[in-house]
């Protein structure tokens, strides 16, 4: 997928656990893990805003676009 998620980087920078972030955002640790590991198909803007508020960051600190490799390798 061309969208890379950096929640783990921000968690490390803030010295925060997944459980603590999940509690602050109001989602389950399992759903946060799905987001963190890049397996989510979508994220609600309300959830993204809550993540940014809890981590004191911008959406661009959590998400990055990478071009897909189309060379067939």
Concise overview:
With 73 residues, the chain is mainly α.
Notable features of this structure?
single chain; 73 residues; 53% helix; 8% strand; globular
Topology:
Layout: E1 3-5, H1 7-14, H2 18-25, H3 29-36, H4 45-55, H5 59-62, E2 63-65
Antiparallel strand pairs: 1-2
Helix pairs in contact: 2-3
* Integer-rounded radius of gyration: 13 Å
Order of helices and strands: EHHHHHE
Overall, the morphology is globular
The strand count comes to 2
Strand order of the largest sheet: 1-2
Profile the largest sheet.
Answer: 2 strands, antiparallel
Mean pLDDT: 93
N- to C-terminal distance: 15 Å
Class computed from helices, strands and strand pairing: mainly alpha
Written description of the protein model:
With 73 residues, the chain is mainly alpha-helical. It contains five helices and two strands; from the N terminus they run E-H-H-H-H-H-E. It has helices at 7-14, 18-25, 29-36, 45-55, 59-62, and strands at 3-5, 63-65. The longest helix is centred in the last third of the chain and has 11 residues, at 45-55.
């Amino acid at each position: 997928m061309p969208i890379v998620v950096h929640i783990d980087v921000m968690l490390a920078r803030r010295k925060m656990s997944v459980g603590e972030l999940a509690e602050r955002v109001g989602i389950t640790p399992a759903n946060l893990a799905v987001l963190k590991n890049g397996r989510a198909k979508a994220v609600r803007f309300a959830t993204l805003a809550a993540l940014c508020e809890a981590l004191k960051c911008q959406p661009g600190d959590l998400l990055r676009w990478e071009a897909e490799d189309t060379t067939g390798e």
